[in-house]
Amino acid sequence: KLYPFIVLIIAISLIYHSQMVSDKLLGFGSDVGGEVFAQKIVEKNAYWNPINPYPGDQSVGRTYAMLSVTILPTIYSILLNLNSILVFKLLYSFLFALVPLGLYNLWKNFVGEKFAFISAFFFMSFQPFYSEILGINKQMLGELFLVALLTVLFKEKEDKNKKVICSLLFSFGLVVSHYALAEIFLLLISLVLIISKITKRPSRNVTVTFVLFFFIIMFAWYIYTSSSSVFDAFLTFGQRVYNELGDFFNLQSREPEVLRGLGLEPPPTVWNLISRIFAYITEALIIVGFIYTILKKTRIYLEKEYFFLVFVCMLFLGALIAVPGLSSIMNITRFYHILLFIIAPLCVIGAENIIKHLMKHEDILKTSILMIIILVPYFLFQTGFVYELTNSPCWSLSLSKHRMSQRQVYCILGYADEQYISAAKWLSNEVNVRNVAIYTEPSSRTHELRAYGGIYVGYVETLSNVTQFNTRSIVYLNPLNVIEETVVSRRFVWNITDLQFLNDMSNVYTNGRSEILYKYAP
Q1: Is pLDDT at 322 greater than 90 in this prediction?
Q2: pLDDT attached to residue 259
Q3: Dihedral pair phi/psi, residue 517, rounded to 5°
Q4: Residue 445 has what pLDDT?
Q5: Which residues on neighbouring strands pair with residue 507, listed in sequence order?
Q6: How far apart are CA 119 and CA 101, in angstroms?
Q7: Type and span of the H or E element at 214
C-alpha cells in the first residue's frame, strides 16, 4: 500500500533536487529558452494565434504550436499569480512527478505491485528523468498525457463510454503537448495494429478507428497550425535520416551516446567504467526479459496488446542503434527514456528468470535482492553521488556545482545567475533589437537573451574571433566572457584577448559581471 506514496516521494525528490538549485531557468542543454520565448509571445499578445509568429523559422513554429508551453502556462500564471518561469519550475515539475506513479499503476496489472515498484525505481534512476527532460516542459507534460493514455488503453474493467472519452481527451492533450512524443506514439500503435492483423489476433483497444483518429488529429494540428512548422520539421528530419543511410556501416556516424551504450567508447575514469557496467547489466536484463517473454517461458503474462507494444519498442530501440542519424533527431537518451515507459518491466522479468534458472525455481525475494544489488549502485552513479564522493567529473549541479568549470555550468548545463538576466533585460528594454546587429555566444543567444530578454534568435549573431561589424552593432558579454575572459562557440574556445575588435567598442552597460558594448559602423 505504501508503494505509490514512495514512488511519488522519490520522483518529487529527484526532480526538485535538480530544479531548485536556482530559482532561475536551468537549460540542461535543452530548449527551455525557446519555450519561455513562445509563452511570452502569448502572454504579451493576450491570445494565441495559430500562425507562426516568425514565418520560416521551424524551431519557433514547432514550439509555438504546442499549447502545453503557450496557452496553458499563461493561464496558470494568471490564476496562481506566478511568473511563467516559476509555473514551469514548480507546477510542471510536480505534474511530471506523477508520471512514474502512473507507470507504476499501469505496470502493476502485468507484473504485480512489487515488480512494478522496482520497475518504477529503475525508470526514475535513469539520469534524463531528473536532468535533460527538466529542460523540455512540453515533453514533461506530454509524458503525463502519454502515461494517462496508456493506462486508459490497457485498463480492461472500465466503462466503454468513459474509455472512449478519456482516449479522445488524452490523445488531443498528447498531440498539443509534444510533437515528438505524439509521432512516436502513432508509430508504435500503428505497428501494434499491423502486427495484430498479421497474426490474426485482433486488438480490442488499439483499433483501426483509434489509430486513424489519432493520425487525423495529429496531422491536422501539425499541418494547419503554426504555418505547418511541425509537419515541415517532420519531413526535414526524415530527409536527414534518409541522407545518412549511406553511412550505415560506419560506426562513427552514430551519436557518441549510442557508442557509449554499446560499450564502444572508452570510459574516461575507472568510476565511469563501473557506472557503465551497472548500466550494461540493466540493458542485458532487459534483453533477457524480452527473450523469455517472446519464448513464453516466464510466469508473468503480458496481455497480447502490451506484448506487441513491447515487441515494437524493442524493434524501435534496435533501429535507433542501427540506422545512422535516427537517434540524433531527439538524442538517444531521450528516446531510451521514452521507451522505458514500456520496456522497464523487462528488466525485472529478466532478473526473475535468471534467478529461476540458477535456483531451479521462482523466488520473488531473491529476485528483489538481485535488483537491489544492481539498481542501488546504478542509482548512485546516475545521480552523480559516487562521482562527487570520488571527486570525479560530474554533471550534477546540486552536488558538484562548486567544483565545476564555469563553461560547464553556464554553457552546457544552462545555469544563469542574476547578472546574466539583468543584462539581457536591459538590452531588451533599452535597445531596439530590430535595428542593430547583436553578437554573443551561442549559449547566451538561446538562453538568457531569448528567455529573459525576449529577443528572437534571428536577431542575434554568433560572436567569434573573425566577427566583422557592418552596421550599428551590440556585443553582449556574459560573466564567462568578462570574469573568465573566455568566449565559447559551438566548436571553438577563444581568450577574450583574441577578439581585438572589442577594444574599439564603447561600454554602454555593466553590472560588474556582464557587459554590453556598442559600436557604430557607417
Answers
A1: no
A2: 80
A3: -110, 150
A4: 92
A5: 517
A6: 11
A7: helix 208-224
Those residues whose C-beta lies under 8 Å from the C-beta of residue 408, and which sit 6 or more positions away, are: none
Residue 47 has, within 13 A of its CA and on its CB side, a CA count of 3
Asked if 110 contacts 300 with a C-beta cutoff of 8 angstroms, the reply is yes
Cα separation, 238 vs 267, whole angstroms? 32
User: Which helix (H) or strand (E) element contains residue 9?
Assistant: helix 3-19
Interval 198-240: pLDDT, tens: 988 888 888 999 999 999 999 999 999 988 999 998 888 888 8
Residues 6+ apart with CB under 8 A from 182: 142, 174, 175, 214, 218
Domain ranges of the chain: 3-389, 416-519
Compute the distance between CA of residue 178 and CA of residue 152 in angstroms, rounded to an integer.
19
* Confidence (pLDDT) at 16: 96
DSSP class per residue in 29-53: TSSHHHHHHHHHHHHHHTS--SS-S
Confidence of residue 522 (pLDDT cuts 50, 70, 90): low
Cβ(34)–Cβ(209) below 8 Å = no
All 3 cell numbers of residue 63?
A: 514550439
- In which residue are the cell numbers 529527484 written? 14
* Contact (Cβ atoms closer than 8 angstroms) between residue 490 and residue 440: no
Q: Which residue has the higher pLDDT, 384 or 253?
A: 384
- Cα–Cα distance for residue pair 145/66, rounded to 1 Å: 13
pTM of the model: 0.94
Cell of 10: 522519490
d(CA 99, CA 120): 10
**148 vs 387: CA distance, rounded Å:** 36
For 421-450, give one letter per residue: b (16+ CB within 10 A) or e: bbbbebbeeebebeebbbbbbbbbbbbbbb
Q: Taking a C-beta distance cutoff of 8 angstroms, is the pair 121, 375 a contact?
A: yes
